[in-house]
Amino acid sequence: MLYQIDRVRQTDTDRQRLTDRDRQVDDARPTETERERNEKRVDIISLQSNQIEKMYNVVLEYLRMVRKFVNATKCGKSSKPAPSVIVLKQMLQTPKIQIAEVDYLFSVLHNTAFLYEPNNDTNQPSTSTKSSSVTGLFKTRDVEKWSKQRKELKRHTVSHTDIIVELMDWQQACWKTRDKMKQYVLMLECAKMSLPYYIDKEREFKARKYSIKQLKKDVKYWQKRHTRVCGEYLKLLSNGDKLWKEMSKISWELEHEIQGIMKEKLSKALDDLSQMNPTNTIRKENAELVSKAIYDSTCKTYTVFHPPYDPSSAHFNTKIHRPSLENSLYYHLQSQTRPYHELMTFRCTVEKDTGDVERKMLRVKPGDKLILKFASPDQLYGFGYTKSPILSIKKWGFVYLDNISIESTYQNFITE
Fold this sequence. Notes:
- The protein is of the alpha+beta class.
- The protein folds into two domains: 2-47 and 142-328, no CATH class; 344-406, SH3 Domains (SH3 type barrels, Roll), CATH 2.30.30.
- Helix content is 55%, strand content 12%.
- The protein has helices spanning 2-8, 12-26, 32-37, 49-74, 83-91, 100-115, 140-194, 202-276, 286-297, 329-333, 340-343, and strands spanning 39-45, 95-96, 299-305, 324-326, 338-339, 346-350, 369-375, 381-387, 394-400, 404-406.
- The strands form three sheets. Strands 9-8-7-6-10 form a five-stranded antiparallel beta sheet, covered by helices on one side. Strands 1-3-4 form a three-stranded antiparallel beta sheet.
- The longest helix has 75 residues, at 202-276.
- It is rod-shaped.
- The N and C termini lie far apart (85 Å).
């Protein structure tokens, strides 16, 4: 009896400690697996348009080089310089991006240039190939439409973040009203349990009956308040879900349209290169992987841990996190991007006379100085130039690596 009376008369500090202990015991926190299941992600196009343009310009330059390579091969022996020399010289001016799928495109172009033989008719591109040059990756009207969608998506992202932040406040309010409701329910139960022990004491018995009446009013008040707060929380959560669906729809449309156009053009480029490659080991289905990697690398990532729907569930005890907006991969790699000609340079000396060589090979003599830029996949050929001591004119072409000695050590040949 004394224990029950003491629980009724406990101080506010004791009651708060009791409710905190009850919440820890009764409401278990969700596991990591449940938290991962409630995570939602949406990838959006990078908000910095200049980063997108730089990355997509690399793809556009690649398509132009392939088209230039194909057009040069149609000229046969009349093409000066040789098609392989044309494409490798242009490749030196493009930036090398540290993304495996993008590097795959340039390694295919590099290897095809070394393997191409103009005398082999089977390697010539089909006559149905269009000879028009590539002037743009996307149409102007498409870019304008995507720009409007990106702006709309950015506004939705800001609005959705504001909703989540407001939900964090409503969650705190739900916790407070829930704990107050539990506290008064517990006090009411204790008062009812202790009432029979005061039947013989009329004054205290009436006082406790009045106290129980007031406690019932307090319980109803906090129940109504908790219901109202939970209703506001669920209403705001519903608005957030509607906005999330709209964001997901716009994001999916952007991804589907941009990747579809890139996949179509990259597939055509790889198809042209496969016809000029005697080994024909180019996998055309990689165009889909490359287009996806290019799109993903230029997108920011908006990450949200989805708030719980049921305020009475155990998961509701997990605090709602503020959404995070992560920079794109290309944003971090941009400072590491440099042109190929800055990455690969070998100073070499010719040891043997090459004699008469085919058109794409450099004719050099013992003692001549060369600057090598690329090496073939089988390490038999190198690509570079010699410079005339009088006019300083560069002559580009291929040399046999067995005929030269490398003076400097630099390990950045493309050998994939």
